[in-house]
Amino acid sequence: MPNLQSDAFVFFGATGDLAYKKIFPALQAMVKHGHLDVPVVGVAKAGWKLDDLKNRCRDSLSHHGGLDSAAFTKLCGLLRYVDGDYREPATFQALREQLGTAQRPAHYLAIPPVMFPVVVEQLGKSGCAQGARVIVEKPFGRDLASAQKLNAVLLSNFDEPNIYRIDHFLGKEAVQNLLYFRFANSFLEPIWNRRYVRSVQITMAETFGVQGRGAFYEEAGALRDVVQNHLLQVLAAISMEPPVGTDSEAARNEVVKVFKAITPLGPEDIVRGQFRGYRDEKGVAPQSDVETFVALKLAINSWRWKGVPFYIRAGKCMPVTCTEVCVELEPPPAIYGNSSVSNRWRFRLNPDMSIAVSTMIKAPGEADVGEQVELVLSHRAKADEMSAYERLLGDAMKGDPELFAREDSVEAAWNVVGNVLEHQVPVQVYEPGSWGLSTAVPSIIPPGGWYDPMIP
Q: Which of 373, 340, 342, 381 shows the shortest CA–CA distance to 356?
């Protein structure tokens, strides 16, 4: 039933941090925009009653996004609550009762990954999976083997068209705009290939550390937390071929082709770092080898990109908080001395959205000396702009899978990083406030050097 609207929304982990910061604001926005008018059932084990959930919802909205009185009142009228252990069949019998006559519920798992198989199997045994969709929050496993095991559990209870694997980066307006800009304009296509592109850089920098989530980060690290999912998806948006149709599978097919064309990483392709002071964080092992910074070099063995190096780096305690793509073009022949400086396209995805192209112009004066300037198109988010979670939850309930990861793309992405997960390069310490180990390994430095994002 790919095109039928879900007639109920269930979210497991209703008392958790993700629900507090992202899900309640998204649900209120969906109500406000007329996209949600079905029962909303929160499930958790907290000893709560329905009024406690409503109070949590109010507090969430007061701190994240703002309380809209009319939308909040309507949302409270839709809310239901089930309190119980995810391992107990009685919890799911109570859920079935709260669903009432709903035949096509959407079950969202905003819970620790270790509980995904438990809840999915209970949904299947209780009959709550029948006619339903399941929305799974990342991470999708810890490596290829665990991802395959998770997919097997999901597929034993839901058909693939009814499985929605959330990567919230795909729901961001800036990432959608990157794809639109590439394929809705004709001037980019002639130069978007190995003949004109010298290198591609993707940087995701954060000024903050693990923010009290040391125990979580010990299980993830930068490679698992943002590279294998978020940043590989950004790489796919930059490098994929135009979809052959407008259906939801066309774009997802092209993403899989990119991932399958990437040469799996080896130890020589990566550097791992850990900011000084990380081991003092609560929940972090005294001798932790978990990376808070990673830089790597990738190769895409396709006709378009053969020979073009792709660089990714991500880190915490960096000088700025920013996610940016820099596509450096081959320099022109040197005629005016310094005129052979490369042009570049720059796509900022966070904290604001902008697209820029750098060009060389003649500097004022008698000498033929150039200077580099940028032409910038920027976009400031509107107050009522759709959030990533509002977009993704709405799409899942409508049955539109385009912005969700498919089984084969998840497994192909794990295959890219599998070797370096199994044979890890030792971490090196870097100072907070620096650019980590961006220049520590010469082979992982772009031809023109790293472009460091700047925030005005």
A: 373
Give the Cα separation of 325 and 204 in Å (integer). Answer: 9
Give residue 1's pLDDT: 41
Cα–Cα dist 332/14, whole Å: 56
Q: What is the pLDDT of residues 336-358, one digit of tens each?
A: 765 567 899 999 999 889 999 99
Helix (H) or strand (E) holding 410: helix 407-422
Q: What is the pLDDT of residues 216-240, one digit of tens each?
A: 899 889 999 999 999 999 999 999 9
Q: Is 4 in a helix, a strand, or coil?
A: coil
Q: Which residue has the higher pLDDT, 170 or 207?
A: 207
Angle at 316 between CA 310 and CA 320, to 5 degrees: 80
Note the pLDDT tens digit of each residue in 199-212. 999 999 999 998 88
User: How would you classify residue 13: left for phi > 0, otherwise alpha for psi between -120 and 50, otherwise beta?
Assistant: left
379 is catalytic: no
| Lowest-confidence region among 112-116, 138-142, 439-443 | 138-142
Q: How many CB atoms lie within 10 A of CB 335?
A: 8
Please give the DSSP secondary-structure letter assigned to residue 101.
Answer: T
> Exposed (0-12), middle (13-18) or buried (19+): which is 448, by Cβ within 10 Å?
middle
Active-site residue (options: 33, 230, 379, 423): 230
Please name the helix (run of DSSP H) or strand (run of DSSP E) that holds residue 149, with its range, or none.
helix 144-157
Query: Considering the entire predicted model, what is its pTM?
Result: 0.92
**Going by DSSP bridges, is the β-strand pair 370-379/353-362 parallel, antiparallel, or unpaired?**
antiparallel
What letter represents residue 205's amino acid? A
The answer to whether 393 and 135 have CB atoms below 8 angstroms apart is yes
Tokens of 404: 């969700």
User: At a CB cut-off of 8 Å and minimum separation 6, what does 375 contact?
Assistant: 356, 357, 358, 359
Alpha carbon separation from 104 to 36, 101, 131 (Å, rounded): 14, 9, 5
